[in-house]
Amino acid sequence: MPAVVIVGAQWGDEGKGKATDLIADRIDYVVKFNGGNNAGHTVVIGTEKYALHLLPSGILTPGVVPVISNGVVIDPEVLMEELDALEARGIDVSGLVISSHAHLITQYHRTLDKVTERFLGKRQIGTTGRGIGPTYADKINRVGIRVQDIFDEGILRQKVEGALHQKNHLLVKVYNRRAIEVDEVVEELLSYRDRLRPLVQDTALLLHTALEDNKTVLFEGGQATMLDVDHGTYPFVTSSSATAGGAATGSGIAPWRLSTVIGIVKAYTTRVGSGPFPSELEDEFGEFLREKGHEYGTTTGRPRRTGWYDAPIARYSARINGVTDFVLTKLDVLTGLDKIPVCVAYDVDGTRIDEVPWSQSDFHHASPIYEYFPGWSEDLTGIREFDDLPQAAKDYVLALEAMSGARISAIGVGPSRDAIVTRHALLD
């Protein structure tokens, strides 16, 4: 049975829940394999709206096992708040499974994230200040705190002491902040021990066994390809592997298990935070997309930067991830435009470049080269068959498909979960 990866193919916030909904009745496990509570997604069920930040979307689907695997960094306070909020709304969260190898975000990670970002001044990256980057840095530097450590107070204390020995010098002498006490960090982490204990497992073994037992496992990527720490617009990226390859390392399953990769693209483009964005709009069209598409961060509430669809980015994502199917979301947002530009290439110092430049400097200075497509005025939200779309909308989708490196198998035409036009089955 398939191991399916869903990844964002732009800069995040593409609407990955649409793809999850299309295959929900086939899924046995949903795995969050990277990132932390620095991003979120909104799931609409009937008239109810749920904003998830750390939990995988499978937490809302009865019968599905939601898993937070080793590639995730966990803020235990945020985790408890999310679980409590869902329980208060009648959602059963008892099936959640958490990897013993996942790393924990502590108060000193959050503090360092905020003061470091302020210290950068004009060179700020635009982090959420939630401690994600410093926690991943500690993981790589081998001074991190893992979930399993809170079940051994002696080990936990040794690790916190080791981490704070260096970090307090930095906080006090460089950033002019107070030192953080070892006891307060240890006590806070230990306060989550009893509630976490029944949730923690060897999730790599759990998922391997599930696949051996012919279960369908969905790997749900946080962030997106252009924010991947290796393949994104570095340094304006997240601190984890947000591409399909990250599903293997971030969960402990073999790469050959990944049989289907679903890339999610909006019918236009958005990003949050600093960094290059060739098709960005800073005019009335950008505001049109922001307001009509409700482009404000699920986690931060920050207004998203908006721009037209960027075909070279879609092709880049298709290559990096091995995308087998695209899901195109928010086509309905474009309704009412007379013409719709699509970025098909870039102009860099007078030279046309058809793919994403390998040089960050070139990408930062790239200007979009547009092709224009006729718009439409008809309401799309009630349409469920591709042939029922207005001709201009169909032509737009087919043009994007031809430019983007993989077939467009489904199209989001509204905010509700069932507002989807399916062209090809995502799972055979």
From TrEMBL:
Q: What is this protein called?
A: Unannotated protein
Q: Which UniProt keywords apply?
A: GTP-binding, Ligase, Magnesium, Metal-binding, Nucleotide-binding, Purine biosynthesis
Description of how the protein assembles with itself and partners: Homodimer.
Q: Name one GO molecular function term.
A: metal ion binding
**Origin organism lineage:** unclassified sequences, metagenomes, ecological metagenomes
Q: Is Nucleotide-binding one of the keywords?
A: yes
The cofactor(s) it depends on are:
Mg(2+)
Against SMART domains, the record matches this protein to:
Adenylsucc_synt
Cellular component GO terms, alphabetical = cytoplasm
Q: What Pfam families does the entry give? A: Adenylsucc_synt
Gene3D superfamilies of this UniProt entry? Adenylosuccinate Synthetase, subunit A, domain 1 (3.40.440.10), Adenylosuccinate Synthetase, subunit A, domain 2 (1.10.300.10), Adenylosuccinate Synthetase, subunit A, domain 3 (3.90.170.10)
